[in-house]
Amino acid sequence: MTLRMQLLTRCLPAALMACPLLSASALATSFGAGIENSQWYLSESVFECALVHQVPGYGRATFRHRAGESLLFSLEADTPLMRPGRGMLVVEAPSWRPGVAPRPLGLVTVPEGRSAVVLSAVQSMQVAYGLLDGLSPTLTRQSWFNTQPVRVHVSNINFASPFQGYRACAGNLLPANFDQLQGSRILFSSASVALNDADRRSLDKVVAYVLADSTVTTVLVDGHTDRTGSRIDNRELAKDRAEAVAGYLKSQGVPESKIVVRAHGDQFAASGNPAQDRRVVIRMEREGDSTEWQQASATPKPGAG
Questions:
Q1: What's the total number of domains in the chain?
Q2: Does a structural domain hold residue 294?
Q3: What's this model's pTM, rounded to 2 decimal places?
Q4: Within-domain flag for 52
Q5: Which of 8, 26, 92, 185 is the most buried (most CB within 10 A)?
Q6: Are residues 55 and 195 in the same domain?
């Protein structure tokens, strides 16, 4: 079998229908920035770091790193040009570096419509370090409109300096983001209101976020118990638990004016497991959020007052 046939056999699975190793300008529609227009733009905050690169004629490539999460790479098209399915991702040398073999990174999902191609955390780091090595990450997938492949190149030109800025930004990210902290739970032993070191570490993440995000207007602290004991005693125990958490938040700098303490006793069971019912739930409200304060995330069982 000739080398060409071997490559065709290996690189043309039915789901892909295009091989980066064989594509040429005569066979593929290619998009990518050149020396004259390749730029990477860094936006940074304690909540998120992002590197954005415009791909002329196609859309944009973005590295995004949210607080508490991993770096992710995405490729977004202004207009859908690739057929939904599996595309081939490689990092390859630019034309002025002949003889450097491409590094295959595997198949990635090309979604329908304008939804972005989003890589895994591992693939995202492989793309980043490919760019730092002077290589060009390239995604190839069959065109939406015909059988010819579409190739999107991500340029490494002018990448290194903004990526160093990204690294500095990533080192200053908060330990967790809003979505991760919303609904944080502190669990308690039976009849206990004591916080342990792990509880305080969890609460420190909430404190860091509230102090950094000026749009947080309210921190709801909801105390709960299991169904052991009388309803009156449980309401008092739930209040003590909520006040223990609120007291720690205030001691670490959260303004008292933002904290709302509520005690629910055994009214809202979280599950059939009493250990999960003995809890304090913390939720934040930001400017523009609904001002209707909902009860903690559980539905009262029949008979609960």
A1: 2
A2: no
A3: 0.84
A4: yes
A5: 92
A6: no
Whole-angstrom Cα distance, residue 73 to residue 108? 12
Report residue 9's pLDDT band, with 50, 70 and 90 as the boundaries: very low
Tell whether 299 is covered by a domain: no
Beta strands in the chain (DSSP E): 29-31, 40-44, 48-55, 59-66, 72-77, 85-92, 103-110, 117-118, 136-142, 149-153, 184-187, 216-223, 259-263, 279-286
Residues 6+ apart with CB under 8 A from 167: none
Dihedral (CA of 239, 241, 247, 252) sign = negative
Asked whether 132 and 154 are in contact (CB, 8 A), the reply is no
Nearest to 51 by CA among 151, 176, 169, 139: 169
Instruction: Give the residue numbers spanning the domain of 277.
Output: 178-286
HSE-CB at 152 with a 13 A cutoff on CA atoms is 26
User: In a 3-state reduction of DSSP, which class is residue 269?
Assistant: coil
Q: Which amino acid is at 196?
A: N
Angle between helices 121-132 and 160-170 (to 10 degrees): 140
Cβ-based neighbours of 222, under 8 Å, separated by 6 or more:
242, 262, 263, 264, 280, 281, 282, 283, 295, 296
Are the C-beta atoms of 149 and 12 separated by less than 8 Å? no
Give which of 247, 273, 251, 275 is closest to 261, Cα–Cα. Answer: 247
Tens of pLDDT, residue by residue over 179-238, are 999 999 999 999 999 999 999 999 999 999 999 999 999 999 999 999 999 999 999 999
